[in-house]
């Protein structure tokens, strides 16, 4: 067992598959570690001998994030390599550039946290579910602050309709209601995502069994809170698995999430298979099963509009990414041409 080589590493997700793949690195004198937190060119790591802090080389690619497995130079406390990611939760960068921001890596369960003390924003839930499905992890929607809700059952039904294929649970960290049911569906590495004030840190503390995460006040007027969590941090759970808490997400932009959008709107994708034309855009074509479902009430107009909006957004960011790749290739070809011309000139002078 790998845990015999590195005591405690299995508590953070180290397994036989990772142990086997790490053999070449170990032969090179490196040791495995998991990134618990990243902060300004340095990172906190979990190793087999305990926590440590290491330097991130400026040219290391990809740049590590919370949840990554890495190879570490033990004597120098410098990262050597980021190991391939099984899954990655990625959103478009806040600057709206054509690259993505990795929020957490090697995640097994993405918990989309929604507060029942605020207005229920189903479009935001669908957006976060698209990110969760695209990551390769399993999404779970948790409706927090159930003790403050006017009609929990109605909210559960509305969110369940907007989250096909995902578990939807209502909990109250204050009373403890629903926490046992939630623990039963959480596995492996768990990341909490949602807006400020949704109750992520409070829920995280309930799962951890201790007040480890900072909790802030929420404005009564709109149910919004301040960013009390400022870093993504990985923590071991008392009953197995690990937890990653994240700062509140003001903007949740999609990034290369075509598969995630399709899974988040699985029932629309199923309807589309019955359209007369295989390339139906659901914009008025004859024989469109999706539009027929909207007209009959089988599919709500709100959900259809949300689907179209996320599709358009994802297509836009994909076009930006393609443009960036084309420019990079063009610049690379120019650099090669300049190098060749310089080489020919130097040979000519020789």
Rg, Cα atoms, Å: 23 Å
Structural class by secondary-structure content: alpha/beta
Strand content: 15-25%
Give unreliable regions as ranges: 1-5, 218-229
Give me the CATH architecture of the domain at 88-245, please.
3-Layer(aba) Sandwich
User: Largest sheet, if any?
Assistant: 6 strands, mixed
Mean pLDDT: 85
Q: What is the CATH superfamily label of the domain at 88-245?
A: P-loop containing nucleotide triphosphate hydrolases
Q: Write the CATH fold name of the domain at 88-245.
A: Rossmann fold
How many extended strands? Answer: 13
Shape field: globular
- Give the spatial strand order of the biggest sheet: 10-9-8-11-13-12
What's the CATH first level of the domain at 88-245?
Answer: Alpha Beta
Order of SSEs: HHHEEEEEEEEHEHEHEHEEHHHH
Give the proportion of residues in helices.
25-40%
Number of helices: 11
| N- to C-terminal distance | 62 Å
Binding site for Zn(2+): 275, 280, 282, 288
Keywords: Cytoplasm, GTP-binding, Hydrolase, Metal-binding, Nucleotide-binding, Ribosome biogenesis, RNA-binding, rRNA-binding, Zinc
Subunit structure: Monomer. Associates with 30S ribosomal subunit, binds 16S rRNA.
Cofactor: Zn(2+)
């Amino acid at each position: 067992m790998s845990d015999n080589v590195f005591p405690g590493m299995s508590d953070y997700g180290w397994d036989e598959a990772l142990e086997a793949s790490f053999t070449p690195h170990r032969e090179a004198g490196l040791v495995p570690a998991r990134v618990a937190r990243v902060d300004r060119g340095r990172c906190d790591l979990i190793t087999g001998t305990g926590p440590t802090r290491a330097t991130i080389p400026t040219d290391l690619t990809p740049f590590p994030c919370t949840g990554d497995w890495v190879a570490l130079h033990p004597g120098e406390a410098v990262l050597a390599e980021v190991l391939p990611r099984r899954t990655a939760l990625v959103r478009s960068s806040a600057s709206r550039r054509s690259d993505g921001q990795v929020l957490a890596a090697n995640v097994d369960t993405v918990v989309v946290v929604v507060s029942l003390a605020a207005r229920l924003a189903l479009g935001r839930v669908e957006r976060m579910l698209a990110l969760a499905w695209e990551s390769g992890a399993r999404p779970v929607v948790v409706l927090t602050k159930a003790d403050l809700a006017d009609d929990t059952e109605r909210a559960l039904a509305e969110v369940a309709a907007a989250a096909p294929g995902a578990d939807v649970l209502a909990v109250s960290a204050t009373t403890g209601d629903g926490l046992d049911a939630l623990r039963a569906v959480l596995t492996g590495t768990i990341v909490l995502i949602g807006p400020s004030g949704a109750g992520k840190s409070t829920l995280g503390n309930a799962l951890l069994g201790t007040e480890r995460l900072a909790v802030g006040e929420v404005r009564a007027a709109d149910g919004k809170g301040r960013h009390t969590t400022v870093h993504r941090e990985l923590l071991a759970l008392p009953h197995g698995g690990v937890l990653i808490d994240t700062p509140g997400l003001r903007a949740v932009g999609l990034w290369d999430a075509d598969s995630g959008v399709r899974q988040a709107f699985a029932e629309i994708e199923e309807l589309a298979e019955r359209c007369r034309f295989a390339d139906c855009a659901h914009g008025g074509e004859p024989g469109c099963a999706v539009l027929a479902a909207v007209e009959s009430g089988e599919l709500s107009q709100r959900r259809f509009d949300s689907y179209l909006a996320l599709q358009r957004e994802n297509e836009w960011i994909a076009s930006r990414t393609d443009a960036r790749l084309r420019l990079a290739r063009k610049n690379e070809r120019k650099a090669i041409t300049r190098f060749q011309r310089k080489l020919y000139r130097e040979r000519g002078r020789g």
